[in-house]
Amino acid sequence: xxxxxxxxxxxxxxxxxxxxxxxxxxxxxxxxxxxxxxxxxxxxxxxxxxxxxxxxxxxxxxxxxxxxxxxxxxxxxxxxxxxxxxxxxxxxxxxxxxxxxxxxxxxxxxxxxxxxxxxxxxxxxxxxxxxxxxxxxxxxxxxxxxxxxxxxxxxxxxxxxxxxxxxxxxxxxxxxxxxxxxxxxxxxxxxxxxxxxxxxxxxxxxxxxxxxxxxxxxxxxxxxxxxxxxxxxxxxxxxxxxxxxxxxxxxxxxxxxxxxxxxxxxxxxxxxxxxxxxxxxxxxxxxxxxxxxxxxxxxxxxxxxxxxxxxxxxxxxxxxxxxxxxxxxxxxxxxxxxxxxxxxxxxxxxxxxxxxxxxxxxxxxxxxxxxxxxxxxxxxxxxxxxxx
Length: 388
Prior knowledge:
Elements: E1 4-9, H1 16-28, E2 33-37, H2 45-61, E3 65-70, H3 72-78, H4 86-90, E4 95-98, H5 104-111, E5 118-122, H6 125-133, E6 142-144, H7 157-170, E7 174-179, H8 207-216, E8 222-225, H9 232-242, H10 252-259, E9 269-273, E10 276-277, H11 283-290, E11 295-296, E12 305-308, E13 328-329, E14 333-337, E15 348-351, E16 355-356, E17 361-366, E18 382-386
Parallel strand pairs: 1-2, 1-8, 2-3, 3-4, 4-5, 5-6, 6-7, 7-8, 9-18
Antiparallel strand pairs: 10-17, 11-18, 12-15, 13-16, 14-15, 14-17
Helix pairs in contact: 5-6, 6-7, 8-9
């Protein structure tokens, strides 16, 4: 699954010259989308259109798409309708995000506009079902979750997962969600001071971790920063998260599993972990953790661990036993089978229930407390990438 990064800009709160600098900086790190609210900008019809025409033209110079939040009130103000989007085509808008749905048939009329403007809807299984019933396919439209300025009001984790699952089961629609900058000087809608994430439990976490959690669900395509302005360090961190979406399919066993239909690459999800590594692990162990790929399950994990057997297939691999003082490996530990059990030597395991230390595994490191949410997402279709 490919992923697109986006920023949000607020023309009602900041001057255009300042926004242009942010766009230029974001483009440097591979960001491709700009989200902005069109109906929040005051002025005459001509003033609003001239403003966004200039914004869109500038964004296109940096190969970025502009996604404008619109509603029926704005349509009326600009003389647009579900069967006439010419006013938006004139300013070369790329995406219109419908703050409200017109209903299945009229929504599909929007989607089939003759100008090639992409239409994005609120992430609602009901809206997606209406579109599908009207004849729309998943690649013809997009959906995006809301962001939530008020602390404790963001989506619950389970609700987020359930909504995405329902929508993906209806059709393979492109889903977007918001993460939030932790820059103390940010701004956004409704005097937001506590960030603008989609999911409440991600509020305040490092921005790259927020993104890695969303992507680990295997259901989110686009990651947008809800508030502005994210720091350059945060923009860079997000770019590092998505820079390597490819899965190495050249390993013989994986190639065989793909060719026989045992594994569907489109269903695999990538979980990106930043482990806290034990300082005395060997160079060989480091290489297995960080350089080998893909670390993946073969579909038969026990409740005690998630295991990647692919790395043990090198017959020349030597994992010398190392002493570990604790009687048990705690939840979140990352271990590697050593040469005391030669047949499995080199196998990487992530502990999900406390496991006895029997001398057959070396302690490699652990998943930090704030990343343990990832353990909930580790399953039989997960590929793990360990990030330095």
